[in-house]
Amino acid sequence: MNNSEPRIVIRRKRPRHEASHGGSWKIAYADFMTAMMAFFLVMWLVSLVPQKDLQEMAEYFRMPLMEAITGGQKNDAGSTVIPGGSPSVIPNPHLIPSRGDVHTEGDLRDAQRLENLKTDLERLIQTDPILQQFRPQLLLDMTPDGLRVQIIDKHNRPMFTTGSAQVQSYMRDILRQLGPVFNELPNSISVAGHTDDIQYASGEREYSNWELSADRANAARKELVAGGMDEPKVKRILGLSSTVSLIKDNPTAAVNRRISIVVLNRQAERRIDEQNVSGATAFDLRDMMEPSPASQLAVPGLPVMPDSP
Q1: Ordered structural domains, the chain, with CATH
Q2: What's the pTM value of the predicted model, to 2 decimals?
Q3: What percent of the chain has pLDDT over 70?
């Protein structure tokens, strides 16, 4: 190789990358502003929707996911146009029975009043020194008939004397604290007594759990009235014996012995009133079909039938 030949050196300039200016936060900020704009837009649109339509929207989002995906079953008895008529596994705070009745604005306001009463009772149970100590024995839930307040028995703290309707002192305190609260709404109440499955020695032939549950429900009514509740607010008294157990696998459990007080909604009150009217009407029709002997016409030539003894 000839060392006298010149050496050629080629220098290639490498491309230089610009340093990062940290602009990723701008994308995150833009996404955040877009989400906020969409949120306020939705809130504005919801404020324009009537109350009735908002109720139907709430029912839709309470529908179980699989029913929403498949379209659900339309409940013909209901007034909502949203598919999925079977009860949702998600609790509904505004339970109104679907019995073919029209859900009027009054019914919706009534449901809201009962929901507010539930909230007030929960707050009272947490703050009242008397009710606070009995908090584990007080169950509140919404039913198709209205707000249900259940006072359950405990093995070491029974509500009544064993086998009788004599109210224990702490049970009396609970009922007399609840009495004035029920007066805050115009709704009537229903009181039901429940027992366990343990039978009397005489069985069902003489004094049984049926009479005991009815007597305990009536004793609870007396304590509510003594606490300040108006007497006419009681719509009905029920003795259900052991037919409705909280723990079906253990019908002798202490929690099955309880008093259920339902603050009835407007539809439940109308249904009870209609049943009472239909019963009275049927009684009047029977009297018309079976006239008394004094009203029978005397036909000449025929003997007059003697009065039955």
Answers
A1: 49-68+77-92 (no CATH), 104-276 (3.30.1330.60)
A2: 0.59
A3: 69
